[in-house]
Design goal:
Strand content: under 5%
Number of domains: 1
Distance between the termini: 40 Å
CATH class: Mainly Alpha
Oligomer: single chain
Structural class: mainly alpha
Helix content: over 70%
Low-confidence stretches: none
Length: 222
């Protein structure tokens, strides 16, 4: 691989790891709320969370680009804070990827929280366990498989981004050029060997990550 390929691969792994960590922090309280709330507008929030699954990446990327631009609400906020604008920067990729991969983290955790018997949480409450203690000692251990699924799906989904990252980040070497964009550049330049090599790495990495998830669900037998 060329130095440019290695840089794109490192940038992609760094982006996926950072986005996954942020999504676990953001998605956990959101998933808990969605799993337990009875508010009438819950379907609206669930639809908004799931929207990136069905929305074309170019559409999502376009609206994020507008929102983070100098005249958008996010752009106005970042400029007021002295941070400039986010498009065509690594920080912009992170923000866009958080939106794009949100449902792949929130939904597995929400489903895991929803399957926890309410009686267990009530029993912990009768033992004078506070809300945080009930969440930490009861809910989190029981929802661990959901967190594993969310982590793997969030990381793998971010690895394969193309439309959103190209729209928001552009194609800046060492800054926003992730593996998917690097592969596209190789294909445009008719460098099919280089494109094939990077594609195989991404394919093998994605398959290995998913294999860990699905193999863990099976009981081990000698």
């Amino acid at each position: 691989m060329s130095p440019a390929d290695l840089t794109a691969l490192w940038l992609t792994l760094k982006l996926a790891a950072l986005v996954t960590a942020l999504l676990l922090v953001i998605g956990t309280p959101l998933a808990w709320w969605l799993a337990h709330t009875q508010r009438r507008f819950k379907p609206v929030i669930e639809a908004l969370v799931a929207l990136p699954i069905v929305l074309p990446p170019s559409v999502l990327g376009f609206y994020l680009l507008v929102a983070m631009g100098p005249h958008g609400p996010i752009g106005a906020l970042t400029q007021a804070l002295g941070l400039g604008t986010l498009p065509f920067s690594f920080a912009g990729l992170v923000v866009a990827s958080v939106f794009y991969s949100l449902p792949f983290v929130v939904q597995p955790i929400q489903q895991a929280f929803a399957t926890i018997p309410v009686g267990l949480l009530e029993a912990a409450a009768t033992l004078r366990a506070g809300p945080w203690d009930r969440f930490r000692s009861v809910a989190l251990p029981l929802a661990a498989p959901g967190f594993l699924t969310a982590t793997i799906f969030g990381f793998a989904h971010t690895l394969g981004e193309f439309g959103v990252v190209l729209m928001v980040g552009g194609n800046i070497a060492g800054e926003t050029r992730v593996v998917s964009v690097q592969i596209y550049d190789h294909v445009e330049a008719l460098e099919y060997g280089a494109a094939h090599g990077l594609s195989l790495i991404l394919l093998g990495l994605s398959f290995s990550i998913l294999l860990v998830l699905y193999a863990r669900r099976l009981p081990w037998r000698l």
